Amino acid sequence: MSAAKNININLKIWRQKNASSKGSMETYKLDNVSTASSFLEMLDQLNEQLINEKKEPVAFDHDCREGICGMCSLYINGRAHGPDTGITTCQLHMRMFNDGDTIYIEPWRSKAFPVIKDLVVDRSAFDRIQQAGGFVSVNTSGNTIDANSIPVPKVDADKAFEAAACIGCGACVATCKNGSAMLFVGAKVSQYALLPQGKVEATQRVLNMVRQMDEEGFGNCTNTGACEIECPKGISLENIARMNREYLKASLK
Amino acid sequence: MAKSALLKSSIVKKYWMALTGLFLCLFLAGHLAGNLQLIFGTSQQFNEYALFMTTNPAVKLLSYVTYISIIFHAIDGIMLTIQNKKARPIGYAKTDGSSSSLASRNMAVLGTVILVFIATHMVNFWAKMHFDKNMPLVQKEIDNGMGGKQIQLVGTKDSQMPFMQLDQTGKLSKEFFEMIKAQTQGQYDLEVQDMTKIVNKKTGEVVFIGYKDLHKLTVDFFKDAKYGLYFTIGYVLAMLALAFHLWHGFQSAFQSLGVNNKFTPAIKFFGRAFAIIVPLLFAIIPVFLHLKK
């Protein structure tokens, strides 16, 4: 890897005061950004500059900054989590950009993810989908059975684990031309559908979760496959097909 | 599950999209096989095939399934597209299309092009075959026994009537019917029914069944001195749109129906081969007819 250097960049960032105000793209100039810094550190640097200029800093979501919490979002230069694959925005580094670049930074765009402020969106629609069926009912009255006492074929366990890797960041919705949440819901349905513990409530789960997904105003799946490519956790389209099968089975019951 | 979910649920809409789409792929294959007779068959063969396709009850049933599929596929597609647009009221200032194919992002546009094509195609051929009273009937030139030629209508196999002669314009003239009536002392009082049958009004006897010359209509359409070239180009462009639509649509239908397994690479390969070969063969036909001497 080449040594870190400093670059000067132009930023075009969506600024919106609050949920009800009309936002717009604003232009900022930021000098001396180290290519070794992460994208979020670059935004921290911008915010320091704005604070020094007595201006309102840019609001953006972030939490763990190690690619696991799913909190950071950002649609960067036309791609969810920016120009790299298999990463969240906190894992994106400024070495992906060149001196003099203009970088567009926008919030996730979806009717179901309304903008709260600047680049921060409300992703609680995902929580409501989860609450509609993304769980298994377990008796916790004191005689809980060890999960490992039920044999699970290794192949299924691996597939369920891959589906469960979904961090609910919403990149699938953001990148889908239809603002569809099928990859998220597909992953959540699949992680249970593949395991014996999940089979018990499989029928109600898929019907309720899909109904909630539709009610939230997410779009439909056109099978473009963009979500699979932009997903930081590499969730496969196979999960959407599995959800479609599960839904068909459940509808015919 | 509520009954309305059969139409309302996003996933069910996709099942319908997939099922109607796959049925229409079958229809395309059948339609292509018929059309290829324009290159590899005689005009007689093609017209007999056209007669079969417009009269056979099983074909009729299939044709209704096809009409319904086209309408349902279009309406369902429009509903899905409207919902999809609503799901993102504010678009992005900058987008990068690298994560999906051009065809997959433009299925609605491609579908609209195909729908417009189907409508014009049906006006140009289907409607004429079904409703046009002036559509030419199959005819041939024969010796009139006096060294000259005359035009005679060709009937279906068991209704060969040698006296069904035509006037200069190639049509059955009223004068001709009157002549027959006079010659037979009123025993044969003929009239045309259902555009192709000649019936003796007096006895109800069907004396002749001709059939429509779809071959001539098609050839004339693409060889038309003024517009033939434009019709041919339009047809080829519509087939290009169909190719892109199928390129994404064929394998996408299987994904929507939940088939994504070890057969998927084979389905994708077959779908892409289908998307290239079928529209290409369709498009070759008007080009062939247009250029044919």
Describe the fold and architecture.
- The complex is a heterodimer of chains A (253) and B (293).
- Helices cover 36% and strands 14% of the residues of chain A.
- Chain A is α+β, with helices and mostly antiparallel strands and 253 residues long.
- Chain A folds into 2 domains: 6-116, Ubiquitin-like (UB roll) (Roll), CATH 3.10.20; 123-252, Alpha-helical ferredoxin (Fumarate Reductase Iron-sulfur Protein, Chain B, domain 2, Orthogonal Bundle), CATH 1.10.1060.10.
- Chain A has a 5-stranded mixed beta sheet. A two-stranded antiparallel sheet of chain A has the order 6-7.
- The longest helix of chain A has 15 residues, at 238-252.
- Chain A is elongated, with a radius of gyration of 20 Å.
- The mean pLDDT of chain A is 95.
- Chain B has helices spanning 5-8, 10-35, 37-40, 43-55, 57-86, 102-105, 107-131, 174-183, 214-223, 228-256, 264-291, and strands at residues 139-143, 149-153, 190-193, 197-200, 206-209.
- The mean pLDDT of chain B is 89.
- Chain B has 293 residues and is mainly α.
- The relative contact order of chain B is 0.12.
- In chain B, strand 1 (139-143) and strand 2 form a beta hairpin.
- Chain B has 2 domains: 5-88 and 101-134 and 224-291, Fumarate reductase/succinate dehydrogenase, transmembrane subunit (3 helical TM bundles of succinate and fumarate reductases); 139-209, no CATH class.
- Chain B is built from 11 helices and 5 strands.
- Chain B is elongated.
- In chain B, strands 3-4-5 form a 3-stranded antiparallel beta sheet. In chain B, strands 1-2 form a two-stranded antiparallel sheet.
- Chains A and B meet through helix 7, helix 8 and helix 9 of A and helix 1, helix 2, helix 5 and helix 10 of B.
